[in-house]
Amino acid sequence: MLYVNLFILSFLFTILIIPFLSSKWKGFVAIISVISFAVLSSIPAINALLGNSTNLLISGSQVTGEIPIKIDPLSAWFILTINFTFITGVIYGSKYMQAYSEQKDKLSLHWISYVFAHAGILAVCSVQNILIFMIVWEIMTVSAFLLVIFEGQKVATIRAGLSYLIQSHIVVLLLGLAFIWVNIKTGSYNFEALSWFAETEKPLYSFLLMLILFVGFGIKAGFVPLHTWLPYAHPAAPSHVSGVMSGVLIKTGIYGIIRMLVLLNTNYLAIGYFILTISVITGVYGVMLAIVQHNLKKLLAYHSIENIGIIGIGIGIGCIGIGYENTMLSVLGFSGALLHVLNHSLFKSLLFYGAGNIYQSAHSMNIEHFGGLIKRMPHTAFLFLIAALAICGLPPFNGFISEFIIYSGLFKGLNIVGFPYILLLVYALFGLALIGGLAILCFTKAFGTIFLGSPRFEYNLNATESHWLKLFPMYLIVLFIVIIGIFPSLFIRLLSLPIEQITGYNPLSQFTNETNLIQNMEWIGYSSLSFIGLSILIYFIRKNIVSKKEAVINSTWGCGYVAPNIKMQYTASSFVRAYRKIAEPILSIKKHKVEIHNIFPEKASHETHAEDKIEETLIDLPIRQLRQFLNYFQFLQNGKLQNYILYGMLFIGLLTGVPLFIHLCELFVNFLNKL
Amino acid sequence: MLSFILIILVSFVFTGIVIRTKSLASGRKGPGIFQPMKDIYRLFKKGAVYSDTTSIIFQIAPTIYFASIIMAILVLPFGHSKGVISFSYDFVFFAYVLAMGKFFNIISALDTGSSFEGMGASREALFSMLAEPAFFILMGSLALLTGYSSFQEIFMTFHFGSYTSYAIGALATFVLILICMVENSRMPIDDPKTHLELTMIHEVMILDNSGFDLGLILHGTNMKFALYGALIANLFMGNLPLYYSIPLFIFIQSIFAIVVGLLESFTARFRMSHNAQFILVLSSVSLLVFFSVLMVMGKFN
């Protein structure tokens, strides 16, 4: 109880004090309050992970009933992930936003929204009352919207924000629908009502309920084809907001899905296959589109979709495991998914902060414009490289650990699942391997063209390294990325209670020597460590030998051509051209070409724009048709005030008239009956 | 440990045999089989030229590439003796650690800011990414067939089944040979001896490397060949006693080297734009392996 009160007190204190401070102090107060939130929520969370869950009961009001606040291991895992990213985000952001220190009012709104978002997201993970859940969910959504539209004077930004706001409210609509259904059937607003619903209603109904909830939370998480808000919102927001949104905000969707899976005892096999299929499509589609993007932040946004796909594959396998009552499979699936939630929040926020550094020193997000930044921004380049390796799932970094667990789940599943569905697993395997390969293509492109080679545009020349306050949180993240990569068993141990809560089995105690997850993780840790050691060893041997030899510095070998210039470098587009040619039937790429025709060449150009085919067919097309249809009623919107008043009158008339008419009819029928 | 030593030993002569086969097939006498190693040794002793565009990435990339291959070799078993590193699903680590080396190879090519090397890097990134699923599906099928999960257990129990497992082994060998050709950028994907940079993949990526670094990369390729040769040999060795398996291993490796040499002598390189389709075909052959495993296990009903 003390924690909740302290939490609310510090929250109120922060939002009251921020508007009255100078620009510099606003960020500082935000840091203090985010850290205090984090401490207040992390203490019970750590306790929960160690085995002492917190259960509180707030009396609430007549409408809501009692409000249970529960920090169980599952919430705890998400709360800790969220806290870490929010802390790094606020430290990074406080420096990042100094570039906008003249816009005092907007900064107040920004930092208050940030604090609101943190409070809301923590509440989402701990509140167990449906009504209150919807309210805090809404707080989180709206504050995230305010964070996104910081640069609202740009049309693209406000559009992205609105798209996010609208789609988020479709989530609210779907969740509302599902929860109202539960409430009607059980009469309770407690989360437990979902379990009662599953016990009393037909299995088909609870399956249907789960599907509605999945679609609802799936929009938030960004599963294809429900992802269309994501690639617009992330690039529009300031970098630390993108990092936090992509790192943890979309994970609330994952939290929701897992929480509902725990509560709602449904046909796990069917839902598992469903989630697996959607997730493979999500993962492959996300990375396929990521490769052809020119905007760095949009590229990263599509990678978020890909990673949600990977997490989803884990959840899918876990559900199949529960369905088959195979402990090993469910443990592998869910531990892979949960660990990937943490891992993705780390490297994705790091990548977005890196993008922020680049944006603030080179003032562009177009990958084609950069080149050679590693010489001007060595720290950012190093950090970006680590994050890129981690997101590709390469050892010895953290991404490999979770992908490895999910892989082992898939391989394990092959032995368990029966015939027709085994094909699904093989396609998932195919998909996951392809995702890995495509991610490498994507990040060699991104890192290679941004940081390596020579600057492709002149304004890169005065790019400088960022302030240490921006680099510090980034190094903090790298520390965790490496620790997870080298000591994965530590984190699997921390995951044991959340896994037990979901699957009913503790991965630490239940395993025979068949496939011991912990032992495996220790092996991977040793291997990663020896890989690092070996690389360093070979490097020193090399250094020793090379230092004795003469080294000549010369220009790049141009295969006999002696005057190569910067414009002849390979660009990002040309790097992925071969891929684009293959993927063209699936993607929708718009090209604009002005070719050289005459003997005296005029200006030639070639542009490609990668559009989202699913968005075009599933969102844009129906909306266009709807608008066409609604055009028939345009005569109603004629700008005459009298007519509008008339519509109002007619509406009121109908509203009162129709029931009256029905009542009269009833009277008449009764009268006839009496006759 | 045994596998590690043997693979390293084989890697010293592997390319030599390939080159010898090629020269014999084209009617020349050709260099001795230790010539590639002598070349590499010479490179190790040489100084280097670095491009002024390059950064630290260019310096560390060959090292990491080389280290990644050694790590991959450490995972491989030899018959029934485990590799130095062995755990369940170690083949995932195997594939990903090789990918790590490749990542650095690609960005080091981009580091030079050259148009030629970018071209090679682009191709290498695309082709090896397309080959990845084939390997995973293949290993998945073998894991399903044997019911085990690490390289050593899978290979040891692989041919305890029926004779059909040899048929599967043959298909698997086919897939592995072609994956090896893709990974090492050899015929029919890439022609290392072509005269034009525009048509190369791997060779054009390392245009700017020289001296010690180039030696590391070249010997890395040798080791990669021996690595895949060892994978193929493992398919057939099972748990034979050492006095059979070591000669068998060396025999299979030499056959593999000769096959590579013959392939390079008698096939033409594909058109670059058709490579991608060809590599995707590999995945379908892996799927074929998978279906035959399903058939053997009677999972179709």
Number of H/I helices of chain B: 11
Tell me the helix content of chain B: over 70%
What is the makeup of the main sheet of chain B? none
Strand order, biggest sheet of chain A? 1-2
| Secondary structural class of chain A | mainly alpha
Mean pLDDT of chain B: 86
> What's the helix count of chain A?
25
- Which structural class should the secondary elements of chain B be placed in? mainly alpha
Radius of gyration of chain B in whole Å, from Cα? 19 Å
Number of strands of chain A: 5
Q: Return the average pLDDT of chain A rounded to an integer.
A: 88
Give start-end ranges of low-pLDDT stretches of chain A.
none
* Structural domain tally of chain B: 1
Oligomer: heterodimer
Please tell me about this protein's structure.
The complex is a heterodimer of chains A (675) and B (301). By secondary structure, chain A is mostly helical. Among the domains of chain A are: 588-632, no CATH class; 634-674. Helix content of chain A is 73%, strand content 4%. Chain A is built from 25 helices and five strands. In chain A, a hairpin with an 8-residue loop joins strand 1 (54-58) and strand 2. In chain A, helix 6 crosses helix 7 and helix 13 runs antiparallel to helix 18 (419-451). The radius of gyration of chain A is 28 Å and the shape is globular. Chain B is mostly helical and 301 residues long. Chain B has one domain (2-296). Helix content of chain B is 72%, strand content 1%. Chain B has eleven helices and one strand.
In short:
The complex is a heterodimer of chains A (675) and B (301). With 675 residues, chain A is mainly alpha-helical.
